[in-house]
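Attaching the record inline, Q. Sequence:
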Amino acid sequence: MPRVLIPLAPGFEELEAVSLINILRRAGIEVVTAGLHPGVVCASRGTVMVPDALLEQVMDEAFDLVVLPGGLPGADNLRDDPRVIHLLQRTYAEGRLVGAICAAPKVLAQAGLLVGRRVAHYPGAMSAEALDGVVDSAAAIEMDERVFTSRGPGTAMDFALALVETLVGEKKRHEVEKALVR
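Structure, as predicted:
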């Protein structure tokens, strides 16, 4: 069974995080949420979540995918945490997948993983510096080799379903999508 890590930073976008968690788990994928700091994590609109673990507790574990929810200041908090940057770089270097939605592709840029890639992101969320060398895309979802990006809360379900298809196949994606009554 694939394993997915979703780091949660203060100010994360709850719609994106919960869509990813819920849809991936519906597909039978093991999802671990990890807080950057001890205790609950408050999302960008006040929703409080209890992560499964602390990031430092899972840093040495192997995950098939590390995917980041956006939101502000959540994406900035992820970008500014050297542990997150190291985790993304290591995951990618070991041949596994990384992903980000909304404002979080800026974290992938900070990790040096976006140069030469097509990138979907929330409009205006990435600086000119972060976009340097990137193919800026207006698509809802971009899958460029092992780097997956998406635009924002409105694309979160489709992004999660695309990740399901990548991790466990098209049949499982359709099964999960049918159960969502779309």
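Residues 59 and 87 are 7 Å apart (CA to CA). The first strand starts at residue 3 and ends at 8.

More tomorrow.
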